[in-house]
Design goal:
The protein is an alpha+beta fold. It has one domain. Helices cover about 35% and strands about 25% of the residues. Strands 1-2-3-4-5 form a five-stranded antiparallel beta sheet. Helix 2 packs antiparallel against helix 3.
């Protein structure tokens, strides 16, 4: 039985005018929905732990995420989805989530 995709949280947009609408952090992936409806996945392994941590902190704070993406991440996304529905369909799990050991 499929598990639902993690919910996208509304972005705080503390300064107004951000291109980011919503976000979600699932394990080592930050998903960002932009105002045009597209959703991008940024993975820790693709952008590095320092930038991943900074982007996640900006998402949680509700400020600076759009700037972080445009300045540092640009085209380093792991996947792009046309809209939230396509993103959710892709992120549905077909089996129970597993815990990764380190």
């Amino acid at each position: 039985m499929p598990f639902p995709a993690p919910p996208l949280q509304p972005y705080g947009n503390r300064h107004g005018g951000s291109g980011v609408r919503a976000w979600a952090i699932t394990g080592d992936t930050l998903s960002v929905e932009f105002v045009d409806g597209a959703v991008y996945d940024y993975r820790r392994q693709d952008i590095g732990p320092r930038l991943f941590t900074a982007a996640c902190a900006a998402a949680r704070a509700g400020r600076g995420l759009s700037s972080c993406i445009s300045r540092h991440l640009r085209e380093r996304y792991a996947a792009r989805y046309a809209d939230r529905t396509a993103w959710a369909t892709h992120h549905r799990r077909t089996s129970a989530p597993t815990t990764r050991r380190r």
